[in-house]
């Protein structure tokens, strides 16, 4: 395996971890207006208070890998998506400040609620916007064109689709961390969002296959297409099981059942699996490009001397980040208790 491919896989791992982990806590902010009472809002905040800042470590780590291992791609992405990146960071700042001030405020609490919801939604939407632009392809003279060329109907649709996906992850997370009426409300919202997410995945897949001959040939041409058929089939299966499990949680108030029989953790793992399958499908479609139509990972890679220089830090910090992430989730496993004050 070449060093360039190693760092590409590492970058993909960092992006996937960020999407799965920070995705559900951004989704909590997106869901915020759908829950009405202060008690529900407090519960939503407490459910992610112990993990939200640690989850964003993966965003920083992914940025470091892109900067150090693929500087040409970093320069192109940073200049092309300057405004969406700045808006995303502003959204993340607003939601971070809202965490610190909301529990300490009285008269201004509704403003911090708004900052948390708007900041989370803005960050998620900008991520989807950039993803949609990359999926539809980046022309070679993209940077020299209008600075708003990333704003297209397809990229806007992808922005909304990512918001729906993050909200689905949040619903499944709340099913795992909550009880009673709030848990059932999260399950109901999750079923509706799952339908939106699956429809969005279908439309994006059909659009890319129809527009891009190279992607169409990769998915439907030759014997290698047989290896890719399981991806959509497994996605449909995961969605079917997820819809069923959310329905069981939603109906649980009609008949008391044991916690282990309701499999309250399984919806989150099924939703995560659905995201992983979508991510693998995306990689299959765009490989070996970092910037589709413009820049491959081989062309964007730094010199071998730089890639080798980074290896000691990679071998130290990747296991360290994984270890404290797993330890933190293990320590705070279980249901969120509403009698606890603050966070």
From TrEMBL:
<dbReference type="GO" id="GO:0019646">
    <property type="term" value="P:aerobic electron transport chain"/>
</dbReference>
<feature type="transmembrane region" description="Helical">
    <location>
        <begin position="307"/>
        <end position="327"/>
    </location>
</feature>
<dbReference type="GO" id="GO:0005886">
    <property type="term" value="C:plasma membrane"/>
</dbReference>
<feature type="transmembrane region" description="Helical">
    <location>
        <begin position="6"/>
        <end position="35"/>
    </location>
</feature>
<keyword id="KW-1133">Transmembrane helix</keyword>
<keyword id="KW-0472">Membrane</keyword>
<feature type="transmembrane region" description="Helical">
    <location>
        <begin position="150"/>
        <end position="173"/>
    </location>
</feature>
<dbReference type="GO" id="GO:0016682">
    <property type="term" value="F:oxidoreductase activity, acting on diphenols and related substances as donors, oxygen as acceptor"/>
</dbReference>
<dbReference type="Pfam" id="PF02322">
    <property type="entry name" value="Cyt_bd_oxida_II"/>
</dbReference>
<comment type="similarity">
    <text>Belongs to the cytochrome ubiquinol oxidase subunit 2 family.</text>
</comment>
<feature type="transmembrane region" description="Helical">
    <location>
        <begin position="223"/>
        <end position="243"/>
    </location>
</feature>
<dbReference type="GO" id="GO:0070069">
    <property type="term" value="C:cytochrome complex"/>
</dbReference>
<feature type="transmembrane region" description="Helical">
    <location>
        <begin position="56"/>
        <end position="75"/>
    </location>
</feature>
<feature type="transmembrane region" description="Helical">
    <location>
        <begin position="81"/>
        <end position="99"/>
    </location>
</feature>
<dbReference type="InterPro" id="IPR003317">
    <property type="entry name" value="Cyt-d_oxidase_su2"/>
</dbReference>
<feature type="transmembrane region" description="Helical">
    <location>
        <begin position="111"/>
        <end position="130"/>
    </location>
</feature>
<feature type="transmembrane region" description="Helical">
    <location>
        <begin position="268"/>
        <end position="287"/>
    </location>
</feature>
<feature type="transmembrane region" description="Helical">
    <location>
        <begin position="193"/>
        <end position="211"/>
    </location>
</feature>
<keyword id="KW-1003">Cell membrane</keyword>
<protein>
    <submittedName>
        <fullName>Cytochrome d ubiquinol oxidase subunit II</fullName>
    </submittedName>
</protein>
<dbReference type="GO" id="GO:0009055">
    <property type="term" value="F:electron transfer activity"/>
</dbReference>
<keyword id="KW-0812">Transmembrane</keyword>
